[in-house]
Amino acid sequence: MNTLSGKHILLGVTGGIAAYKSAELVRRLREQGAEVRVVMTAAAREFITPLTLQALSGQPVHSDLLDPRAEAAMGHIELARWADVLLVAPATADFIARLVQGRADDLLAAVCLACEASLAVAPAMNRAMWQQPATQDNLETLRARRVHVLGPATGSQACGETGPGRMLEPEELARQLDGLFQGGALAGRRVLVSAGPTREAIDPVRYISNRSSGKMGYAVARAAAEAGARVTLVTGPVALALPEQVNGIQVETAEQMHAAVMEHIADTDIFIAAAAVTDYRPQSVAGQKIKKSTAGMTLALESNPDILATVAALPEPPFTLGFAAETDSLEANARNKLRAKSLDMIAANVVGPGQGFEVDDNALQVFWDGGERQLGRTRKTRLARQLVALLAERYQAKYNTDSVIKLHAKDSA
User: Fold this and answer.
1) Element containing residue 400 per DSSP (H, E)
2) How far apart are CA 104 and CA 65, in angstroms?
3) pLDDT score of 271 more than 80
4) 123-146 tens-digit pLDDT
5) What is the mean pLDDT of the segment spanning 268-287?
6) Could you give the CA distance from residue 62 to residue 81 in angstroms, rounded to a whole number?
7) Are 274 and 354 found together in one domain?
8) How would you class 13 by CB atoms within 10 Å of its CB: exposed for 0-12, middle for 13-18, buried for 19 or more?
C-alpha cells in the first residue's frame, strides 16, 4: 500500500553537503503522490538553490521566519498546520542540537517547535561528529520525545573518510517515511466503515438525501487500513475514489446500507458508522415522474432502520464508534446518543454553512464512558488518523488486547 499518496510532506533542508540529495528526495516523494513543500535554512541555500527545490516540488520554497505573504505573517504556524509529517533531511549535528534545545530562531526550527504532526530527522554528518557523545545524547533525547531518527548509513563521506554518518539515500528515506503511516495499531482487526449519504427515491428522477460528501468516512477507512486493519467500506453515492486496500460495497438507500452492514457485521471487530443515513423515506415511490402541480404536493414519510442502534444492540456487538452531526447543543446531543444507543465511542461535530459537510476540514469532540478528547480543526485526512489512533487506544483498553486477542469463531476453527 502506497500510503504517501495525497500526504502533505514538509521537507526541512539544513546546511550540509548532503543537501544535494534533497532534490532527488523531493522527486521520489512526488512520484509516490505526495504533496511536498520545502523549508530551507540560510546555510542550506549555500549548498543548493531554492529554485531547484521549487522546480521539483512545484511549490515556493520557504526560508523567512516572519513572512508578510503568509497567514498573519506567521509562516511557521501556517506550514506546521499544513504538514502530515515533517522530515528534516539532511539534519546536521548543529540542527539536531538546536532541536533538542527547543530553539525557534529560524523558520525551520520554529516550524519544528509548532508542528503537531510526526517529526523525523535524517542525520548527515562526519563520522566523528556522529560518534560524539553529545550527538548521541541529543538523538536519545529526540527519540524519547517520539521523534523518528531515520539512519544514518555507513560509507564514504565528502571529507574523504569512511564510517557512519551518511544521509540515507532518497529511495530509502521515502520507503521509511511511507512506513511511518503504517502504524499497525489495528493490525489483524476487521473494521467495517459506513460512509456517505443515502438516497431515498420519491419517483424515478427525485430523491431525499443530505449534504454528506463521504470525505470523512473515506478518510477514516483509509486511516484504518494504514493502521493495519482489514477494512470493508459500505458507501452511499459519492464522487470519491475507493482507498487502496479497502473492500468497497456500493449502496444507495438506507435499507440497502442496513442489509450490507448486517451481512458483514459477524466478521467485524470494529464498526465505524460515519455515514449520514437518511432518517426517513417516502412510504411509496411513484413509478413515473410526478408532474409539477400548482396545488403543491404532500409527501408521506416513514422511518428508515437505525443501523448503528441495531449493531450496538446485538448480543455480541463489535466495538462501535458513532458520529453525531449537530447544529446546536453538540456535547449534550452527542452524550445522549452515546448513552441511548449504548455505543463505545461517539465523534461529534458541528454542521452548517462551511462546516462539517462538503468541506475538506473538520473538528471533532470525541466522547466515551468516563472520557472525552478534543481533536482540533484540520484536514479530514489528518483528523481521521488522529481519530483512528484514539479508537485503537479505546479498543485496546476495552478488550485488553495486549494480552487477550478477540477472535471470531472462524478464526479459532
Assistant:
1) none
2) 9
3) yes
4) 999 999 999 999 999 999 999 999
5) 95
6) 15
7) yes
8) buried
Omega cis (within 30) before 123: no
Q: What CA–CA distance (Å, rounded) separates 194 from 216? A: 10
Give just the sign of the alpha carbon dihedral 21, 23, 27, 32.
positive
pLDDT at 224 over 80: yes
C-alpha cell at position 36: 511536498
Q: Which of 47, 48, 70 is nearest to 57 (CA)?
A: 48
Which residues in 167-312 belong to E strands, given as ranges?
A: 190-195, 200-201, 207-208, 230-235, 246-250, 270-273, 280-282, 301-303
The reply to whether the predicted model has a pTM over 0.85 is no
- Report CA 245 to chain centroid distance, whole Å: 15
258 DSSP assignment: H
User: DSSP for 298-352?
Assistant: ---EEEPP-HHHHHHTSSSPPEEEEEEEESS-HHHHHHHHHHHTT-SEEEEEE-B
Residue 296 sits in a domain whose CATH number is 3.40.50.10300
Nearest-angstrom CA–CA distance, 75 and 65? 7
Number of domain units in the chain: 2
In Å, how far are 250, 308, 357 from 240, measured between CA atoms?
A: 12, 23, 14
- The DSSP output letter for 372 is E
Q: Using an 8 Å Cβ cutoff, are 309 and 271 in contact? A: no
| Spatial separation of the C-alpha atoms in residues 404 and 282, rounded to whole Å | 47
Which residue's entry shows cell 554518518?
A: 165
Write out the H or E segment, with its range, that includes residue 12: strand 8-13
Q: Which residues are known to be catalytic?
A: 159
Instruction: Cis check for the bond before 60: say yes or no (omega within 30 of 0).
Output: no
Pairing mode of beta strands 200-201, 118-123: unpaired
Whether residue 94 sits in one domain with residue 223? no
Judged by DSSP in three states, 354 sits in: coil
Identify whether the C-beta of residue 385 lies closer than 8 Å to the C-beta of residue 223. yes
φ, ψ at 296 (rounded to 5°): 80, -175
Residue with the three cell numbers 540529495 = 21
Range of the domain at 239: 190-412
